[in-house]
Amino acid sequence: MELFTNQVLAGIATGAIYACMALAVVMIYQAIDHLNFAQGEMAMFSTFISWQLMQWGVPYWAAFVITLALSFVGGIAIERILFKPLAKAPILTNVAGFIALFAIINSSAGLIWDFTIKQYPTPFGSAPFLGSQLISTHQAGMIGVTVLLLLGLYFFFQYTRIGLAMRAAASVPESARLVGINTSWMIALGWGMATAIGAIAGMLIAPVVFLEPNMMGGVLIYGFAAAVLGGLTSPFGAVVGGFLVGIFENLAGTYIPGVGNELKLPIALALIISVLVVKPAGLFGRHIVKRV
Amino acid sequence: MTTLLNVKDLRAYYGQVQALHGLSFSLSEGSLVTLLGANGAGKTTTLRAICNMVRSTGGIEFDGKPLNNRSTESIVRFGIAHVPQGRGTFTTMTVEENLQLGAITRKDNAGIVSDIERMYAHFPVLKQRHTQQAGTLSGGEQQMLAVARALMLRPRLMLLDEPSFGLAPLVVRDLFGILGKINREDKVSILVVEQNAQLALELADQAYVIETGRIVMSGNAKDIANNEEIRKSYLGY
């Protein structure tokens, strides 16, 4: 039983990171109807920036906040420079844009910081959490930060005018313009926020997977899986999907004979495919039905 | 009466296709004007051109200021509320959120709150359903919501694109009654595009008839309604 609880809690901790990545993916998907393949690389680059700041002697939380601000601005810049001009281009052009962005960020990080694996600090420490062997303080910190982030985002989208405007711009762009919302800037703002959310995920997972240019590859696949599982049209679903994928991944690795660490990923993806066969829009996604 | 909206030699294009061929008309402050015409005549395009949602040339002046080359969202800030064809409802949001969105460019929070109450007084059914997702409302209720959302801007001019479309005759009567009241009591000028010519002419002060992108007839709404020849040849009733 202790093993089970332990694996579930560890699953919730990594699931928190998948939830963040899934949320970032869904936010951009809602805004521009495309999956951002470079979301993980953007998060990786943000994490390197925070690492560099700490190398220069900036304390952890100051580096954390500065990185969030830089990521926010960087995300807006990427949208303005690369994807705004592509807004009316065909899907494949956009896909090419995302792949290019992926390659550019990945190689730039390798060029600037090289491909060797680096240690990344945790502000929470790695002692047992509250004296219990079930979960470490870093894992508890990952969960805590994610929960705070999710509550903050919920409040932002539900109770602020700018959050309302962003939701409106994502759901019916033409009507949003007709009530005076600058939808183009709402998309840019979505990119900024998604990039900052990705940065949080990167900085929280880096002490676990270590810092290197390819660190987010696996994480992003789980994040995509979580987003698809929860439903690409539902931010709430993406978050739930993230936690579910995290827990399932751990339990499958522990309890299904022969799975172990190597087969965790395919098993998780197989589960997702089975869910999608039954519910193609994802667990919480909605088929868009229009009244004529 | 002063001229609020003045459209001169308006030409609009969808890609290579020209939809409006030099259309001119005007609307005085406080009046209710209707644009009539058959399907494809260019009524909707005219409204879309005013809000710069379609490529156009020619002069569009609102209260003496040119609107050309301004973005749709900045034109709203002049006090022009456009209720598009199909109502433009934010279907996944609640009725109340739809109303708040109508006032998203305003900063006076107290005024917005009191205006939402005012809309509920105008349209009691919206109050009953204020927490409901707007997409679950009936067609008539959604049209009420669309008009209410537009009024939340406290507009000087409201553009309505076929408000009667798809509604039961009784609901249309109701809605047109409310539009007349808004025009008279709240002093909102209204430009309404309609296929239901009979009803629109009862409501309007002034009417223009469009055919294939040109104005072919204009005048006092009563005179046009009483002129059998015009009615038969252009309005089909």
What does this structure look like?
Chain A is globular. Helix content of chain A is 73%, strand content 0%. Chain A has helices at residues 2-32, 39-55, 60-83, 91-113, 137-159, 161-171, 173-178, 183-209, 217-230, 235-255, 264-278. In chain A, helix 2 (39-55) runs parallel beside helix 4. By secondary structure, chain A is mostly helical. The longest helix of chain A has 31 residues, at 2-32. With 237 residues, chain B is an alpha/beta fold. Chain B is built from ten helices and ten strands. Chain B has helices at 43-50, 72-76, 95-102, 109-122, 124-128, 139-151, 169-185, 197-203, 221-226, 228-235, and strands at residues 3-14, 17-28, 32-36, 55-62, 65-66, 80-83, 157-161, 189-194, 206-211, 214-220. In chain B, the strands form two sheets. In chain B, strands 6-7-8-3-9-10 form a six-stranded mixed beta sheet, sandwiched between helices. A four-stranded antiparallel beta sheet of chain B has the order 2-1-4-5, covered by helices on one side. In chain B, helix 7 (169-185) links the parallel strand 7 and strand 8 (189-194). The longest helix of chain B has 17 residues, at 169-185. Chain B is globular. The mean pLDDT of chain B is 91. The chains are: A mainly alpha (292), B alpha/beta (237). Chains A and B meet through helix 6 and helix 7 of A and helix 2, helix 3 and helix 6 of B.
